[in-house]
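PROTEIN FOLDING TASK:
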Amino acid sequence: MKCQATYSANDIASDVESRRVPICRRPRNKKAKSSSGHAEKEQPPAGAPAEKHSMRLRVSSAKSKTDDDYDLIMKQGLCGGVIKPNVTFFGEKLGNEVGRNLQQDSIHADALIVMGTSLSVSPMSKVVEYLRSDIPRILINRNIVKVPKVSNNKDDYLFHACLLGDCDVVVEALAQKMKGNDVVISSTTGGAIGLVTSDETWLQNQPKESILLFRGAVVSNSDEADIRQELVVHCDGCQNEIEGQVFCCKNCFDYDLCSACYPSCSLLHAHGKHEFVVER
């Protein structure tokens, strides 16, 4: 995480199998290289003493083998940074390429499939509203989820089809149907696929005609969790997590500014031609 060097799964396999935290052993003050041998951008050396870095990794006062290994790495003049999976953790800002790709793909999208999610974490929960409202929206999930709504758009953003059940079961049924095989549909949940025959609160205003029930579907009102949307937003100006008002670009996906950066950055962004709305 310090030097931005990249590693393949084979490079860290022995550490993972031994239940050790993988640590970068690249010499400090050297250009980082990926496992493929390509040089990456050079990063400045860590400014804090080795002893302080070592303390940050310790989770208890007891001296462990991991601590000994880390101290040895630091004494050898190696990087010592923790090797992080190439994924975005909760609370981290999405890469800029996500928004760029979404903007490019949005005009070509024929349908949107929302699969295996609670739609409770921003900004990905906003994709449903960001895409055109005239494309089919299909939910494959164990239960119906509410689509977060942050604008005054009149579209209610209901799903055109809800295929409720274990995702693997639903996908297998779709695959069989696409192959031309028969899939049994019954008026009860006892069949391979069930229909909803009455209006209930768990439908969350979703038309019952748009719902098919598969094995694993959660249809009981008592089983329905009260999911709160977690809004963790980072400012594209100062890169810090935003506390308070969030100024969101109406044209770009996941371009947000804090109140301190908004006056200046909104004029520079897209040459000042994009409008912003206050989300909270």
User: Anything to note?
Assistant: The longest strand covers residues 137-141. The chain has three domains: 9-75, 96-223, 233-280.
